[in-house]
């Protein structure tokens, strides 16, 4: 359980007690009780079985893979996966690889619907870049229409393990992952993934050699 869940639940429990003392109405206390239960459930943080073995890149978030496309960056071609989290998904974010955090960059922005393509450029977000040794993997925590707070618990220079908890996005959002060009993709658009336990891709050969085809990405 993420501690935020306890804060919300305790606050609503206090409201419930106050309403009961003032009204003695079982109907009026129903709403804060339901909301308290919802927040305890929403901020759940289940344990996950982290896949072992070299070269595996796991999902940083629970959700639905909504997009997979090649993009050009200053470091060359990268494969970008977009994962959409609805309000019912676990919102704890995890490191996709083991390595050293190279960059954590927060950028203020808008709160557009995270399903819209322009949200990746315009919405409030945090970029995290992890140096895994022979390659880098980066991902963005992107705020959405309801998500108004991004929590990142790591900083540049920190050592992280694959599947380690690194942050949280509250109430529906999006996470974009940038994979090396040599990544062998293990998911496709429409796949449901779980943070820390679903393998998004594997690095089967040194970075810079043959990449998977774009046709295979979007199949």
Biggest sheet: strands, sense, closure?
8 strands, antiparallel
Stretches with pLDDT under 50, minimum 5 residues: 207-219
Terminal Cα span: 37 Å
The H/E string reads HHEEEEEHEEEEEEEEEH
Helix content: 10-25%
Characterization of this structure:
With 219 residues, this protein is an alpha+beta fold. It has 2 domains: 40 residues; 163 residues, Glucose Permease (Domain IIA). It is 20% helix and 36% strand. Helix 1 packs antiparallel against helix 2.
Protein traits:
single chain, 219 residues, Glucose Permease (Domain IIA), 2 domains, 3-stranded antiparallel beta sheet
Q: What would a concise description of this structure say?
A:
The protein is of the alpha+beta class and 219 residues long. It contains four helices and 14 strands.
Helix/strand layout:
Elements: H1 3-23, H2 30-42, E1 56-58, E2 63-73, E3 76-85, E4 92-94, E5 99-107, H3 119-122, E6 125-131, E7 136-143, E8 150-152, E9 159-160, E10 165-169, E11 173-180, E12 183-185, E13 192-193, E14 199-203, H4 214-218
Antiparallel strand pairs: 1-14, 2-3, 2-13, 3-11, 4-10, 5-6, 5-9, 6-7, 7-11, 8-10, 12-14
